[in-house]
Design brief:
- This protein has eleven helices and 19 strands.
- It is an alpha+beta fold.
- A six-stranded mixed β-sheet has the order 5-6-4-7-8-9. A six-stranded antiparallel β-barrel has the order 11-12-18-15-14-19. The chain has a two-stranded antiparallel ribbon with strand order 1-2.
- A hairpin with a 3-residue loop joins strand 11 and strand 12.
- Helix 1 packs across helix 2.
- It binds guanosine-5'-diphosphate and magnesium ion (MG).
- It comes from Methylocystis bryophila.
């Protein structure tokens, strides 16, 4: 049901809350300024106070905000966005670190990478690849729950000395449900007890057929510890991306998803946003969940400021008025009024949902990915 607080109603009419309360009292209802009233009552109040009422259907508020179509001719290739999954201790964090570190060292010597929740590296073939590096955070779960698809490819890490384990199987199922292709990274091949053949056979039992066994799933034997075959893994990702023919329109206004967000003491709310379509520019008005802001600065994973960020590029966004949540979808809007309309609507929705739900559950996916 559509509702509004008395405060919000008063604000929208530029009336005093007390006048609204007084009017409701005349009709026999006692209210506080923070009380929620239904849309019909709100309409009566507004009309009584001489305001023209335009009822906006709930679904209209976000109309045109996301997924508006692009012209085929505007689409250009974009980098793949990769998430690493696998059983605990199979080497997800080590692999993410190794890939990032290898790239930083080869790029600018001694460059300090900062953790922003996602990073981009260059594959040996020269093409960029974006990694979401907060597997353990609630981000992935939250994103999927909200219908935001941020991952193009899942790299499934399986330790060669341990084989397929329960969370490996879960990851396979999740990737399948999300219709995201897998690339298998058989990790820890440096270990004397590594048995990559066993991993292949076990994967087969879960309908993952790797290339060397006649299947279609790319597989690379790696060692995160010894930084072995990381280039081959990146090449495999690029190859898979080519098959997927990933494209986006960089010329439209930006859409994306919040990967991570926090309140920084000095800088205020800081959100890592993965841009998915369009180009995000400094000065853009953005909404994310129930928050909005004007982009004050954009920083990449090396801490360098940027003027803009195109498709598949992860950036830290400064300028939000409040801290959005991981998984919130981001969109650029044309005016402050629109930003307020959307975020106020979402704020109301959040309150309603929280009231209806009570507690919140924790998904196994977030555990699996840590
Ligand atoms: P996660 O739980 O999947 O993130 O796994 P971690 O990256 O934390 O790794 C778990 C353990 O395996 C750590 O002690 C790592 O040092 C070790 N490890 C990760 N990759 C390799 C590898 O390629 N070879 C060997 N020998 N050990 C590894
Ligand atoms: Mg880890």
């Amino acid at each position: 049901p559509e509702t509004i607080t008395i405060q919000e109603l008063a604000n929208r009419m530029s009336e005093r809350g007390v006048d609204v309360i007084r009017l409701l009292m005349k009709q026999g209802a006692m209210h506080k300024i923070t009380d929620v009233i239904d849309a019909d009552t709100a309409q009566l109040v507004a009309e009584e106070l001489g305001h023209a009422v335009k009822r906006v259907a709930e679904s209209d508020v976000e109309e045109g905000l996301f997924d508006t179509p692009d012209l085929e001719s505007d689409l250009v290739s974009r980098p793949p966005v990769v998430t690493i999954m696998g059983h605990v201790d199979h080497g997800k964090t080590s692999l993410l670190d190794a890939i990032r570190h290898a790239n930083v060292v080869s790029g600018e010597a001694g460059g300090i990478t900062q953790h922003i929740g996602a990073y981009q590296v260059t594959a040996p073939n020269g093409l960029p690849v974006t990694f979401i590096d907060t597997p353990g955070h609630a981000a992935f779960t939250a994103m999927r729950a909200r219908g935001a698809k941020v991952t193009d490819i899942v790299v499934l890490v399986v330790a060669a000395d341990d084989g397929v384990m329960p969370q490996t199987i879960e990851a396979i199922h999740h990737a399948r449900a999300a219709k995201v292709p897998l690339i298998v990274a058989i990790n820890k091949i440096d270990k004397p007890d590594a048995r990559p053949e066993r991993v292949r056979t076990e994967l087969l039992q879960h309908e993952v057929q790797v290339e060397s066994m006649g299947g279609e799933t790319l597989e690379i034997e790696v060692s995160a510890k010894q930084k072995l075959n990381l280039d081959k893994l990146l090449d495999a990702i690029s190859l898979q991306a080519e098959v997927l023919d990933l494209k986006a329109n960089p010329t439209r206004s930006a859409e994306g998803t919040v990967i991570e967000a926090r309140l920084d003491k000095g800088r205020g709310p800081v959100a890592t946003v993965l841009v998915q379509r369009g180009t995000l520019d400094v000065g853009d008005l953005v909404v994310a969940g129930a928050q909005w802001g004007k982009v004050r600065a954009l920083l990449d994973d090396q801490g360098q400021t940027r003027q803009d960020a195109g498709p598949s590029f992860p950036v830290e966004v400064l300028g939000f008025s409040g801290t959005p949540e991981a998984g919130d979808r981001v969109a650029v809007v044309e005016s402050e009024a629109r930003a307020r309309e959307i975020t106020e609507y979402r704020e109301r929705q959040k309150r309603d949902q929280a009231a209806a739900r009570g507690g919140s559950g924790r998904s196994s996916l977030s555990d699996m990915m840590s």
